[in-house]
């Protein structure tokens, strides 16, 4: 049977037998060997892969020991130690590296948390506390559930790695933001948030924690360009997120199927009938901050659960730490965390058992989020606008451009995102517990912000995507209730209806009737649920309605969850059948070759760290006029040269203008390469520019004397040394 948050008995304190310890000890070794093999298979050098595994293992081990101390004398599953180790260890390593970056200890900053733990373990009482709690032998369902989720993640990774090779003899083209993430990782590790690699002299106002971690890990392991961002980070994030989903779902339910369902909903479940048909794992490959923020979000959820039960030490410190991690990881997580904890606090006002703890949790989260937002993000120009209906319009859910159409389309957006969350409906008829309020608050915050905000790049959809990570776990708890509440015949019927609904959503979406697609998906399970309610009324009259309503809600929740998994399975199959990407062409968007790389690597090796570089290449494709670049940015100079650029990557999405000073820098950079003059050379020199990277495909000029001299050249790129005016 499924138990509520405060009803589940505490785990047994009995320490595992010796064979269990041997099995537990083998898990880190297996994970390390598997990680090393995957890195090598993805193109990473053998020794470099070994160093990376060692660095990550130290970070995860540090976090696991801290969590072991926080949990006290209870038996912990291996997945819990791995998941919380990833959430705590990576966040603390990043913070240590940033805090010590301006000091002589900068190269070892990421080891500061590990050193603190080692010093603490020298105290006998601390060692005794670590030994007091056992580690539970991993069960088959635990291994199988997490492994299944990782299998899906590795399928996405294999396709992603094929499209983003680490080395190539010909032309290649990365997804537009991958060089951006790589460059920002170098920027944070070298100059911190006080200076930006993309516009020298400007601060970084962004959720930059993942980039700081990637840069610190790259430096610690001596890794090459793009290795941590495209190889190491996804592996760590996938493993940590899936282990945390398993851990939290096991906290909330004793049903053995629930953790596996939680993992599947996160790894496979699709936003049914959505134009943005991307699973969480797949999307986090293109947005690394999503995976890093997810670790903090799920870590906060686990700590909140333990705080309300009084089952963890230092709960407020841990919750505050993870709240800061949500702001710096992906700001959308901070919004849904605040919404979830806020509803828990409001709902807990009438519950003496949790009232004080819930209010304290809300105060901690609000203070941490507000403080982190002021320090990290406030001052950013931002590009999210108050634009109700923008998401519905982008998804094609607005059949008409009036108020009724706006309402109908917005409801359609909610239905599209909420299909895989619908298992929460199965909890109808049970006394609401804090975890349910938490999920509803997170879902409400995510859907509301997606409904009222707009952005040409659909960035507002990150809010419901972030909320979905939380709600999917609670939805799995509801599915466990459905398994207990429904007969086998009803379950099979609901499963068949769910499969049909998932297929209907996939088929209807591209047929020019997008607005009706989410309603079509929901209608089939709703009809079945209504039939269950009518049957209960016919059999038992009014007295049978409460039980019938509960069963009907369980039928709807189960059917829609199956629909989400059906649609997600189709995406998984499409990914598996995806052919290798075609070779990039020299004139293609974002295309670059070893000739570009050689020039930028030469510049990195022959320039000072604080030199500023100007470049005429601002657009995804070569361009010899002053027109806007429209959709794609170009970040390769900053990504491979590891130097601050005067300005690069300013043009991103049409409709998002940038400030006048950005336009001035872009025009000056292009003008100097096309027709160098003394006045422009003096402005560049005074701004700290000492080098100019001239992309030959973006200019017809080949003579820069006397204002600059050629220092290095390839078929595609010339590196110019700026002459003192």
TrEMBL record:
Residues 1-20 are annotated as: Disordered. The keyword Membrane applies. The chain crosses the membrane at residues 23-44, 50-69, 81-99, 105-123, 143-161, 228-248, 260-283, 289-308, 358-378, 404-429, 436-455, 461-483, 490-509, 515-538, 550-573. Keywords: Membrane, Transmembrane, Transmembrane helix. This is 4-amino-4-deoxy-L-arabinose transferase. It comes from the Bacteria. The keyword Transmembrane applies. It comes from Geodermatophilus maliterrae.
């Amino acid at each position: 049977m499924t138990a509520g948050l405060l009803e589940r008995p505490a785990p047994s304190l009995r320490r595992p037998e010796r064979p269990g310890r041997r099995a537990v000890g083998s898990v880190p070794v297996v994970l390390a060997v598997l990680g090393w093999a995957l890195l090598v298979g993805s193109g990473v050098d053998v020794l470099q892969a070994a160093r990376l595994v060692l660095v990550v293992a130290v970070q995860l081990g540090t976090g696991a020991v801290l969590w072991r101390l926080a949990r006290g004398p209870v038996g912990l599953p291996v997945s819990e130690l791995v998941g919380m180790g990833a959430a705590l260890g990576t966040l603390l390593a990043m913070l240590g590296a940033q805090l010590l970056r301006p000091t002589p200890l900068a190269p070892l900053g990421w080891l500061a948390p590990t050193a603190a733990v080692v010093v603490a373990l020298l105290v006998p009482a601390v060692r005794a506390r670590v030994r007091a709690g056992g580690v539970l032998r991993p069960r088959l369902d635990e291994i199988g559930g997490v492994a299944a989720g990782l299998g899906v993640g590795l399928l996405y990774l294999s396709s992603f790695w094929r499209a983003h090779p680490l080395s190539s003899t010909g032309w290649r083209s990365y997804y537009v933001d991958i060089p951006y993430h790589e460059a920002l990782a170098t920027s944070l590790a070298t100059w911190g948030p006080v200076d930006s690699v993309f516009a020298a002299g400007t601060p970084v106002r962004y959720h930059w924690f993942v980039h700081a971690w990637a840069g610190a890990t790259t430096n610690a392991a001596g890794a090459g360009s793009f290795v941590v961002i495209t190889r190491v980070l996804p592996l760590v994030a996938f493993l940590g997120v899936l282990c945390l989903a398993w851990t939290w779902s096991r906290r909330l339910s004793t049903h053995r199927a629930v953790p596996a369902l939680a993992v599947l909903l996160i790894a496979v479940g699709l936003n049914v009938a959505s134009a943005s048909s991307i699973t969480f794992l797949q999307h986090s490959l293109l947005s690394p901050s999503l995976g890093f923020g997810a670790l903090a979000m799920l870590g906060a959820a686990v700590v909140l659960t333990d705080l309300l039960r009084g089952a963890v030490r230092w709960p407020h410190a841990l919750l505050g730490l993870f709240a800061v991690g949500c702001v710096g990881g992906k700001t959308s997580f901070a919004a849904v965390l605040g919404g979830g904890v806020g509803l828990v606090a409001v709902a807990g006002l009438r519950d003496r058992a949790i009232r004080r703890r819930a209010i304290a949790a809300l105060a901690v989260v609000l203070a941490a989020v507000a403080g982190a937002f002021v320090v990290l993000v406030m001052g950013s120009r931002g590009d999210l606008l108050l634009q109700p209906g923008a998401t519905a319009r982008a998804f094609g859910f607005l059949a008409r451009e009036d108020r009724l159409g706006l309402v109908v389309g917005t409801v359609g957006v909610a239905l599209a995102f909420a299909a895989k969350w619908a298992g929460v409906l199965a909890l109808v008829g049970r006394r609401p517990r804090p975890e349910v309020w938490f999920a509803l608050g997170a879902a409400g915050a995510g859907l509301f912000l997606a409904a009222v905000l707009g952005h040409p790049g659909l960035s507002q959809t990150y809010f419901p995507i972030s909320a979905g990570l939380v709600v999917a776990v609670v939805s799995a708890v509801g599915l466990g209730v459905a398994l207990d509440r429904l007969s086998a015949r009803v379950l099979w019927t609901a499963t068949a209806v769910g499969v049909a609904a998932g297929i209907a959503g996939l088929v209807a979406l591209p047929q020019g009737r997008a607005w009706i697609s989410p309603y079509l998906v929901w209608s089939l399970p709703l009809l079945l649920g209504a039939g269950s309610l009518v049957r209960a009324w016919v059999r038992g009259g009014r007295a049978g309605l409460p039980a019938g309503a509960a069963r009907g809600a369980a039928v709807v929740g189960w059917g829609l969850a199956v629909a989400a998994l059906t649609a997600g399975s189709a995406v998984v199959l499409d990914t598996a059948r995806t052919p290798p990407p075609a070779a990039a062409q020299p004139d293609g968007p974002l295309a670059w070759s070893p000739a570009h790389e050689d020039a930028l690597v030469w510049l990195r090796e022959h320039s000072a760290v604080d030199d500023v570089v100007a470049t005429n290449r601002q657009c995804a494709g070569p361009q010899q006029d002053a027109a806007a670049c429209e959709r794609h940015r170009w970040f390769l100079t900053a990504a491979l040269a590891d130097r601050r650029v005067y300005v690069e990557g300013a043009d991103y999405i049409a409709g998002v203008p940038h400030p006048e000073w950005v336009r001035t820098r872009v025009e000056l950079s292009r003008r100097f390469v096309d027709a160098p003059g003394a006045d422009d050379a003096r402005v560049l020199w005074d701004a700290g520019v000492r080098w100019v990277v001239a992309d030959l495909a973006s200019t017809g000029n080949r003579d820069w004397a006397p204002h600059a001299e050629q220092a290095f050249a390839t078929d595609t790129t010339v590196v110019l040394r700026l002459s003192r005016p």
